[in-house]
Amino acid sequence: MKLRILGSGTSSGVPRIGNDWGACDPAEPRNQRTRASALIEHAGTRILIDTSPDMRAQLLAAEVGMIDAVIWTHEHADHVFGIDDLRQIFHVRHRPVPAYARPATEAALREKFGYVFEGQHGYPASVSLATLPDRMAIGAIEIACADQPHASITSTGLRFTVDGKSIGYATDLSGMTPEMRALYAGVDLWVVDALRRKPHPSHPHLGQVLEWVDELAPQRTVLIHMDQSMDYHTLRAELPLGIEPGFDGMEIAL
Predict the structure, then answer these.
(1) Helices marked H in the chain — which ranges?
(2) pTM
(3) Which of 41, 52, 163, 235 lies 20 to 30 A from 14 at CA?
């Protein structure tokens, strides 16, 4: 099983509009971050996590023109608003793209993007949306999920397992529940939101993530959803062994 980080940035990306790099070194390509998204792949099956506003550029960079399913973690714009680019996947597949979301996210997506799932003005539906259950499989990839607090809404935490190897994907969370602990405990790879060093009301800060890593004991941890205060090389120098900043285009195989 392979994970590719398509985007490792926040809703603003790095740099922010106005060429705002913050503390990030502009000369380091790994500091250039598009909005958070990822791709899980095994034995020819590809699962896209979220459709960021940068989805088209992300999939072009990954040289990916076909996916087998989409899972949305939640309905916020930086994780959803590339949804129209799924129409091109529909054209390649010649049938709607299967997609999954938890009930609240599913309802929000249907309300905002009904034309994507139902068609409109002679255009066919490009996506077939279904409710994401607690457990399912896509191809040989087993998927488990848990609802995560994310300020006033919930997001979806994900665990992907193949042949006893597991990847946890945790973005846009503001706390850790018993269900989440059970989901992420002991994963081989944990990809987790670490927005910045200062506390934030709807995202974890770096110190919080480090405490969770001590508790959950993943084999390897990669940080995502980082803002312009999180310079790549500064983080590499200060993080403990087994924890590292992610970057756009990073690929990890288990």
Answers:
(1) 55-61, 77-80, 86-93, 103-112, 114-118, 178-184, 206-216, 232-238
(2) 0.97
(3) 41
